Amino acid sequence: MNYELNNRWGILYCPKGRGSKQREKIQRVLNERKVQYDFVQSESIDSVERLMTMLINNGYKTIIVVGGDSALNDAVNCLMLQERQVREEIALGVIPNGVMNDFARYWDFKEGNVEQTVDWLLKHRVRRVDLGCIRYENKHGEKCHRYFLNCVNIGLIADVMNLRRQAHSLLGSRTLSFIASIFLMIFHRMDYKMRIRINSDTVDRKVMTMCVGSGPGYGQTPSAVPYNGMLDVSLVYHTGLVQVLAGLWLLVTGRFLNHRSVHPYRTREVQVDEAKYALVGVDGRLIGRPEGPYRITIEEEVVNFLIPD
User: Phi and psi for 264 in degrees, rounded to 5?
Assistant: First the structure.
């Protein structure tokens, strides 16, 4: 490992469209600040982990993901495949550039302000952050696990996020895709029979959606802190369509926990014994419907993350 790579950034660019203006702007800002860097661009979802592995194996100690929550999730899961000694030498940063940038927004990184973001990253202020982990079996009976920085969604919100992504790929506009997904939601299943164990409580009833967050959870776990060794949980019981729309308004305005159907918890582990038909999303990306019971836990301070000054 040479000295130059210790100080050189590996930048993993995950485009959210076909345009190159954002890439050109980021490179211009980096060049103006005389940052030494190497730029690689993902061509598909599958290529993020491959490129992240390449950057790690080539010795980069500062890796910046230009992308959203899903790209960060891929990067983190790739990082967690490495031995602890390797992980601890790497600092992960983000320049938000995704459909959803919730984890970046938590730290006040804004998508439109590349200059400020790069200036903060240059100061190399590191915070060790927690990772949540969901362990489950897939439809082939294989034991799987997936780490997350932000949250796991189970039920209706995972369904809405899936619809939003599909609509975004067709419509392009974030606003139109959100409106379309809310409209399509009316025709989808609105509740799921679940059996969940949280702390000393057992919830055995119909649940509309559950969010388990190490981070802000797209507004559903707004009090979550990604470095306190705990998971925040928001359970939403079945309610009418009017109340669903009211809940979505509170979600958009940052007051989700004020909804009367939302039941919050704080814990280190969630055991889902039953949620047969509920979709599961991890940091905005679907993993489908796990087979049988699954467990969500927290691992404390395992990733070096670059935060603002």
Answer: -90, 150
Between CA 180 and CA 160 the distance in angstroms is 10
Helix, coil or strand: residue 85: helix
Cα–Cα distance measured from residue 14 to residue 236, given in angstroms and rounded to the nearest whole number:
33
pLDDT value, residue 284: 87
End-to-end, the C-alpha distance of the chain in Å comes to: 29
Between CA 98 and CA 291 the distance in angstroms is 30
pLDDT tens sequence across 8-46 = 999 999 987 655 788 999 999 999 999 999 999 998 767
Determine the pLDDT at residue 217: 87
How far is the C-alpha of 258 from the C-alpha of 274, rounded, in Å? 27
User: Across the strands, what pairs with 64?
Assistant: 11, 93
How far apart are the C-alpha atoms of 93 and 65, rounded to whole Å? Answer: 6
DSSP states along the chain: --HHHHHPEEEEE--SSS--HHHHHHHHHHHHTT--EEEEE-SSHHHHHHHHHHHHHTT-SEEEEEE-HHHHHHHHHHHTTS-HHHHHT-EEEEEE-SS--HHHHHTT--TT-HHHHHHHHHTT-EEEEEEEEEEEE-TTS-EEEEEESSEEEEEHHHHHHHHHHHHHHHH--HHHHHHHHHHHHTTS---EEEEEEETTEEEEEEEEEEEEESS-GGGTSTT--TTSS-EEEEEEE---HHHHHHHHHHHHTT-GGGSTTEEEEEESEEEEEE-TT--EEETTEEEE--EEEEEEEEEEEEEEEE---
Is pLDDT at 168 greater than 70 in this prediction? Answer: no
Element (H, E) at 37: strand 37-41
CA distance to 75, 181, 193, per residue, from 288 (Å): 20, 18, 17
Nearest by Cα to 177 from 160, 188, 164, 162: 164
Mean pLDDT of 173-177: 53
